[in-house]
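Q: Can someone sanity-check these two? First one:
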Amino acid sequence: MADKVYDISNVYQIVEKNLLNYSSKEMRRLFHGRGGTYKNLDFLNVDLFPPALLITLYEERDSQWKKEMTDLFMELEGIDGVVFQSRVKAPWINEITAGELSPDHIVMENQLKYSISLAKGENPGIFPDMREGRSYVKSICHGWKVLNLFSYTCAFSIAAIEGGAESVLNMDMNSNSLSRGRINHELNHHDKSAVSYLSHNILKSFGKISKRGPFDLIIIDPPPSQGSSFNLERDYGKILRRSGDFLGGEGEILACLNSHTHDFKWFRSFLDENLTNYTVLKEFGPGEDFPEEKSELGLKIIHLKVF
């Protein structure tokens, strides 16, 4: 695959093929150029948020190029809109090049509903690469108390409650994200009393977290970096070292890392440095929608039990 140089016609063919394969028309990544397996197209991702496509660019392209892409994709069955997001520099800019977006845009994943937004230059409200992670959480947490750190719009919480979790505490500094999380739980008709939300700086809230425990499972899915408020190597370690307090001595952790500058080997060593007695239950990545030339650098998820 690496020896072949790909172009836009190849992107269209792959997107069309994946659309046909995903008969459910759920949210999916249709083309993952960022993984480097398609030579010459590592600046481009295409995500399906039915009925629209979100095309993410990591290099600038002119308006004519975008028009040609838009015209191609609007010929696909079931596609009613195309949005480009430029991530060349901050702030990100979204450009709707075809169709109209509903202000109440709801997408499905594994038969669960999520509220998203493609109109603004930000993340849409859910990350497609964590599809396997959410499915896994749904399968393991029946009857558990779950702590969901860096919860964003609470997608892990949705999966946990759907999987029969007794309760979930969602923590994130962004109160707007947590508000979207409430909407997501309402969309899925979940028991409101089973879900709680704290808009706090996690690193300054260890006491509050401990008082709400003990938890059976901690989900840690931080951003690789968040300015001065979160430093991956410094602050992730702090959370891991305090995890025993949150678990009441023992329990399970789903440790996630989405950084292309840190591989699985580094992550395993990092866990060794910050945890004492634990065993790994499962390691996995984002699944087949996200082919990576260097799989060790893709999304990393490690499920472990702490003693």
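And here is the second, same format, sequence then tokens:
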Amino acid sequence: MQTDALLNAYIDLNILLLAGALLWLALRSGLARTRLGKAYRPQLRLLNAVTLLLALSPLLVLALTRVLAHPSPNLSDLLVAQYLQGNVGMSAVRFEGLLGLREDFVRTLLNGQAPWARLLVLGFATGSLICFFQLAISVVRLRKSLTRSFPWKRIGRTRLLLSDEARVAYSTRGIWARYVVLPTSLLEHPKDLRLSVAHELQHFRQRDIECEFLLSALRPLLFWNPAFYLWRREVRLLREFACDQALKSRPGFDLRGYCECLIRACAKASRDPVLFARRSPTVALVDRRETRRGSSALARRLRAVTAPQPHSTDTFGWTLVSGLLVAAVIMTALLLQRPADWSHDRIMLSTIVNLERMASRASGTPATAVSALSGSFAVSSR
């Protein structure tokens, strides 16, 4: 694959992530007004699926464009058609320049002649390396933490470990084995120990560890995009809501004891926030934001877990919502693609552009415009 194709695919990924975040926020706002708004587990499954879809979008679009018999409609061609129908009020030269901004940006960036292009590449490379080294350091520290822990029990491929260093329970995984690391202080509180283990095992059932690994791997590439941090925040928030809701639905669940366990875990984690924060990629009993003083994250979580439980899952409703969101993401990805070749509309636009330039040279004034619909020259002076 050529360098310009890779760069365009990267740009498409960032734009698609922004569009996906906006679509999700709009969808979540709409769901909040319905009975589906409190069903956190279906929301998490949908969000995890769309996360994977966004990550694989360049490969998916490539496969779709090869399978489709005709080139899919793209945003550029649609805008050209609207211009030729007289729905865009600007000169053809300016309109063509706006359409070519991205191509000019990619060309200038690949040439590396402009000072701003070199600074941009240097800044991206530096930020990406910093994020990569941060991730590598976190993985090394996590590995050391696992090796210093003591084996306690084993449930299938899941190993329960006890650690003197951990402040709160957290879970992670390797290629084959899964790990739940528990603070040794929990041995003095059997109820908290049982609730912490149940919480972390639920994260495995929800595939939260795999999703956290994917988000961590994407950070060195998308570190500059605010939509990435917005998306990651939504995933982390929903995963805890969904996990709490799943535990609450179990018969005989002690809701009061669970809330008290969360409060005690936050209190312990706040004593050493640096050590708590740098072990990743993991999924912990409490999030780092919940351990900060004055943070409303813990209160929001307690309100969510004590809210009335949805009585039933609306399968048809969630199927419809999921289908609409996935279709919107795929359609947006296709619209972002570049035109395949010169279409009839683009030839007409190019002809109009040439007429405008001829009229500009003939009149000698830069403010000459050509009417795209009537074909006549309209000269205006500034």
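A (reply): Looked at the second one. The chain has 15 helices and seven strands. Residues 115-148 form the longest helix (34 residues).
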